[in-house]
Design brief:
Blueprint lengths: L3 E2 L7 H22 L6 E6 L3 H16 L3 E2 L8 E6 L4 H12 L2 H6 L4 E6 L5 H10 L5 E3 L7 H11 L2 E4 L20 E5 L1 E2 L10 H5 L3 E2 L2 H13 L4 E5 L16 H9 L6 E5 L8 H8 L7 E3 L7 H7 L5 H14 L4 E8 L6 H14 L3 E6 L17 H25 L4 E9 L5 E6 L4 E5 L8 E9 L4 E5 L3
Parallel strand pairs: 1-7, 2-3, 2-4, 4-5, 5-6, 6-7, 8-11, 11-12, 13-14, 14-15, 18-20
Antiparallel strand pairs: 9-10, 16-17, 16-19, 17-18, 19-20
Helix pairs in contact: 1-6, 9-10, 10-12, 13-14
Length: 477
């Protein structure tokens, strides 16, 4: 495979703009002699959050410009790329397992290039393990080298050597990367990258770097293009969207940004995630309440209902502050749908702390929760904290939390029976002409309707309620 290769940094935006097409054209020429079929095939698999999905769309955009087509299985691919996630141990284990399963395919087709990128690859111990244990992996790069992908891919293909590049944060935002979006009516729009919060359990600031916001005019123009192209559900992305604009010279706030996007004409919903409670202002709530297009769904992770545990997590708000935000949101947006993230079994948590989490859940009455048993991440402060609670006990708490939330969600769904909801029809459920739709509040509704309505807004009368989903009938327009 050759020796370890480390390529240099790009130091400015201009470098990427000037070299992008050159390397993509060179890749096209190389693939003419390496491809296994009429056109070169790429298999891209993305793990983790929506930001990773958005990164994957940019990787696909670059590969498409180099002449690639895409398949949903790796068997026929000339380039296989895993876009990885470092937030949960389970996701990492899946990556190692899937890469290991490619050994025989690489032996059968030696010219197939196997590549890995994303958050996992920004961790030194992971990159070292990948280099040592998987010699057939030809390209590895981290989150900060996405804009360098054309040159990195060209180097790996042309040299036959292994190319590894990580820890390459130039603290810039590189615009102009082509995008091949996965959907035609639902889309992701990154507005910022990185995180400055350093929650003690979280690896994100270490693998995605410091906060940096995209220029407002660039975001507005991209939103206009998406709306003009027919996108009906647009989600603004950032590790903490509420802190958008803090590094920009014009001092624009997140509330101002979404207000300006909301003023764009069209029939669409605007969503955003993730929203950090410490930066969630009344101005933001007021903006949502006064908007035409902003979703009535607010994802506001609280992680723990115990102020003591929140201090250990370095969340920089307490229980009272969180409830103050939620209560204000409920007063301004009566039909608001609140969802959140919760960690069970954080180091040092007691059952009394956990009961405070349960009581907060009961008080807020969330539509749904993303719940996790604490998973230590190498390199984070929490990984070295004393943890005396057994896995068995944490699992017991976890089950108790799920039971409480299921009862709340079921009650909320039942309260919606008989109402009329505007929904976006998203796709087929898989049988009996049933389609899945979604409300502005991010609740799934199953309806019987023709496939031609996929990608359109419709009004639906809710007729039945389950624990997590609704069922309904189309109303005549």
């Amino acid at each position: 495979m050759g020796q370890f290769v480390l390529t240099e940094k790009y130091s400015t935006l201009t470098d990427f703009d000037e070299t992008q097409n050159e390397y993509l054209n060179l890749i096209y020429e190389i693939m003419e002699t390496r491809k296994r079929s009429d056109k070169p095939i790429a298999y891209i698999h993305t793990y983790g959050c929506q930001q990773n999905v958005a990164d994957g769309e940019r990787i696909k955009g670059m590969l498409e410009k180099a002449g690639f087509e895409f398949e949903d299985k790796p068997d026929n691919a000339d380039v296989i790329l895993f876009n990885t996630c470092a937030v949960r141990e389970h996701a990492e284990d899946r990556v190692f397992g899937n890469v290991g399963a490619l050994k025989n395919l690489k032996r059968k087709y030696p010219k197939t290039l196997i590549a890995l990128c994303g958050c996992m690859m920004e961790q030194e111990h992971i990159a070292k393990r990948m280099y040592k244990s998987f010699p057939y992996v030809g390209l590895v790069f981290g989150t900060h080298a996405l804009h360098m992908f054309p040159k990195l891919l060209y180097t790996a293909l042309s040299s036959g050597k292994r190319v590894y590049l990580r820890d390459n944060d130039d603290e810039l935002i590189h615009e102009g990367i082509p995008i091949k979006r996965d959907g035609t009516f639902k889309g992701w729009l990154p507005i910022m990258y990185g995180c400055n919060n350093f929650c003690t359990y979280c690896i994100v600031p270490y693998v995605r770097g410091r906060e940096r916001s995209r220029e407002k005019d660039i975001i507005i123009n991209e939103a206009k293009e998406m709306i003009k192209s027919g996108y009906k559900d647009i989600t603004l992305l950032g590790q903490n969207v509420n802190s958008y604009g803090k590094n920009l010279k014009d001092g624009v706030s997140f509330s101002q940004l979404i207000s300006e996007i909301d003023s764009i004409d069209g029939d669409y919903w605007l969503r955003f995630m993730t929203s950090h409670p410490k930066d969630c202002t009344r101005e933001l709530i007021d903006t949502i309440a006064d908007s035409k297009h902003i979703s009535t769904h607010l994802h506001l992770p609280f992680q723990s209902g115990s102020s003591r545990i929140l201090r250990l997590m370095n969340r920089r708000y307490d229980r009272e502050r969180y409830l103050d935000i939620v209560n204000y949101a409920k007063s301004k947006i009566p039909n608001i749908s609140l969802t959140s993230d919760v960690i069970v079994g954080f180091p040092g948590e007691t059952y009394e702390d956990f009961k405070q989490t349960l009581s907060l859940i009961k008080e807020v009455e969330f539509t749904s929760l993303f719940t996790f048993i604490y998973s230590p991440r190498v390199g984070t402060p929490a990984a070295s904290m004393e943890d005396s609670i057994s896995d068995k006990e944490k699992s017991k708490w976890f089950k108790e939390l799920l039971d409480v939330q299921e009862e709340i969600a079921s009650k909320r769904c039942k309260s919606m029976v008989g109402s009329t909801q505007k929904v976006l029809i998203e796709g087929e459920k898989g049988k009996d002409d049933i389609l899945n739709a979604r409300t502005s509040g991010n609740i799934i509704v199953e309806i019987k309707a023709p496939k031609e309505l996929i990608g359109t807004f419709q009004n639906v009368e809710i007729t039945e309620a389950g624990n997590w989903i609704l069922k309904g009938n189309l109303k005549k327009q």
